[in-house]
Design a protein that fits this description.
Layout: E1 18-20, E2 26-28, E3 45-49, H1 53-65, E4 73-77, H2 100-105, E5 109-112, H3 119-132, E6 137-141, E7 145-148, H4 156-168, E8 176-178, E9 191-195, H5 196-201, H6 214-224, E10 229-231, E11 236-239, H7 264-274, H8 300-321
Parallel strand pairs: 3-4, 3-6, 4-5, 8-10
Antiparallel strand pairs: 1-2, 6-9, 7-11, 8-9
């Protein structure tokens, strides 16, 4: 993983879907399609947010335009800026800017973590929230994805529910269902269903492995414990680092043939996904450079440096936990497929002082 230069050149996406105010804030335009779902399905969807509001906005728009009820979406403000966003204290050039009132006005739920959490900690926050609300399951999504249905005959949301019903009605219910394997093989959990009891059974996510490899650890332990994982294709998913110019295209893709992969929007999202290389897949988190002097401000270049160091520390712990097993950054051989069992975790604890 490459480090960013000391000075990160940022950019803010200008899109027709938001309006800029004189003070630099912006708000979403009203869109009646957002709040007209009458779905009774139990489809709570967590989306964690750390930075880059334009990218999150595209994610939300794509889900809602594809049928996901706005009121079922829970944006988790994980910026570590306490009540700054709720009070409107951050400007839109700040990487941590997130307009809580605008999201709530459109039916999207917003909650905040007490401080900035790592990826694994955020996952346990999702689990704890589900437990406290007596949910049997939930969905969660990355904030840097966009979704489209495969055809106009079935929404992406309907296809997800069809997968869920098919894979959870058997006696051996899936602990996790991945919806992105076919389109984003390097991040198959870009959208995932989680069975609460299955995740509780393995003790949740290992927060000592904060970022990369923590997914390998969790999903492998789930299968080791007898909770199968499954894959299902519900439509097109895109792993992107930028936003399209006109978000209204998600609501009006101008489909003539009935297939979304023949639209301009589809090809634009494919282009954005192809630009998100492995070496720079996380730079979207740090490409805004405003907000100096605002509450809880953190320099983007410093944040990326600390993230990089933390990732490397977590990979070392992962390898030591599983007897030298190496994480290669892909969705290749899993721990359980390599013959490891739950009893192999920390079977041989290294001696001496940690480096």
């Amino acid at each position: 993983m490459r480090s960013l230069p000391a000075v990160v050149i940022g950019f803010i996406f200008t899109i027709s879907f938001f309006v800029f105010h004189k003070e630099g804030q912006h708000r979403l335009l009203d869109h009646t399609n957002w709040i007209k779902s009458d779905s009774d399905a139990d489809s709570h969807l967590f989306i964690g947010f750390r930075s880059n509001w334009p990218l999150l906005q595209q994610t939300i728009v794509s889900y809602v335009a594809s049928g996901w009820p706005a009121q079922h979406i829970i944006v988790v403000d994980n910026t570590g800026t306490m009540d700054s966003n709720a009070q409107g204290l951050l400007t839109s050039s700040n990487p941590s800017f997130l307009p809580h009132p605008e999201l709530r006005r459109l039916g999207v739920q917003v909650t905040s973590t007490p401080t900035r959490l790592t990826f694994a900690q955020l996952q346990n926050y999702f689990l704890a929230t589900a437990i406290n609300r007596s949910w049997q399951h939930y969905f969660w999504s990355h904030q840097d994805v966009a979704v489209l249905p495969s055809t106009t005959s079935q929404s992406f949301y309907s296809a997800v529910l069809h997968c869920y019903n098919a894979l959870t009605s058997s006696t051996q219910k899936s602990g996790v269902i991945f919806f992105a394997k076919e389109h984003i093989p390097s991040a198959i959990d870009s959208l995932a269903y989680v069975n609460v009891e299955s995740l509780k059974d393995i003790g949740g996510w290992d927060t000592d492995i904060p970022y990369y490899a923590t997914d390998w650890d969790t999903y492998s332990r789930m299968r080791m414990a007898g909770h199968p994982t499954a894959d299902c294709n519900a439509g097109f998913m895109f792993d992107v680092a930028g936003a399209v110019e006109n978000l209204d295209a998600f609501h009006n893709p101008h489909v003539d043939s009935g297939y979304l992969n023949e639209t301009t929007l589809y090809h634009e999202l494919q282009r954005l996904m192809s630009r998100k290389t492995v070496d720079f897949r996380n730079t979207w988190q740090y490409n805004q450079t405003g907000g100096q002097g605002e509450p809880f401000y953190q320099d983007p270049a410093a944040a990326f440096y600390v993230f990089d160091k933390t990732v490397k520390m977590g990979l070392k712990i992962f390898s030591e936990k599983w007897g030298g097993f190496k994480y290669d950054g892909s969705q290749g051989q899993s721990l359980d497929a390599a013959g490891l069992t739950l009893g192999d975790a920390w079977k041989a604890i290294p001696t001496g002082n940690p480096e």
